[in-house]
Amino acid sequence: MGISRDNFHGLVLAVSSSIFIGSSFIVKKKGLKKAGDTGTRTNLEAENFLNNLASFSSLCTVILGEVANFAAYAFAPAILVTPLGALSIIFSAVLAHFILKEKLHIFGVLGCVLCVVGSTTIVLHAPQERNIVSVREVWHLATEPGFLVYAALAVIAVSALIFYAVPRYGQTHLIVYVGICSLMGSLTVMSVKAVSIALKLSFSGMNQFVYFQTWIFTIIVITCCLLQINYLNKALDTFNTAVISPVYYVMFTSFTILASMIMFKDWDSQNASQIATELCGFITILSGTFLLHRTKDMGNTTSKPDEEAPVFGNTNNRTPETAT
Asked: Under DSSP, is residue 316 helix (H, G, I), strand (E, B) or coil?
């Protein structure tokens, strides 16, 4: 199946986002290593400067990645953009091998290959982007009964997790925090796509910010992002990143694909074979991601818990790097 012009633009932006996000970890860790080489007693000021410079450079790189990821949703369907967030860990692993001299063992190479194969499968079989000429069309899709039911169930589930499960099980079951972030993340991506489409149309001469729907989508994006950042940081403070990352990736991506399928009806134009191929591609990416995370410290005995790869994914499952 061929790839459309819009899907190609979305693909380039999504891959660019992964490159920026993946390299942000390398930039930060490289700066921290240089700061450590200066000595903590005799060159304290130089060390602090390098630490701050590394954090600032890493933050700038993440912001560039988020902007590219945000723009990707204006051109390509979520089922194409969201799974490609896993590519950030490939770039991080490869750059760490060459720049930080952290050995990429055979399981790491296999994990990278699986992610590339899965991503290629999804790209080649992804549905075409819907032709939307106004944000009011997105609003119409978002207010159809099917998506309203999904959104209501997601909000109810998140409320139950926050008010009932978090006080009782938040410190012992990572699924609580990850579930909140994943459910809200799916709603965030749908709103992000609406806002990005509004921006694309506005830049082309059709101002979409005169419609109240654009502002409602913007408020939803801000609210959901703040909620995600809060609970994802709590999860990272409580549990190991190597455990959270694959679980969060599969839950976030699954809910996002489900929400996109309901709202934008991405699979209506595809047959069962194409859908099954895309799901196989997603499972392949998941396998590669899990393998990379479970084996990434093999041979690196000096790694520290706070020097782990960034949480990957789309605009929303990368926020912990922004918060550092």
From this structure: coil
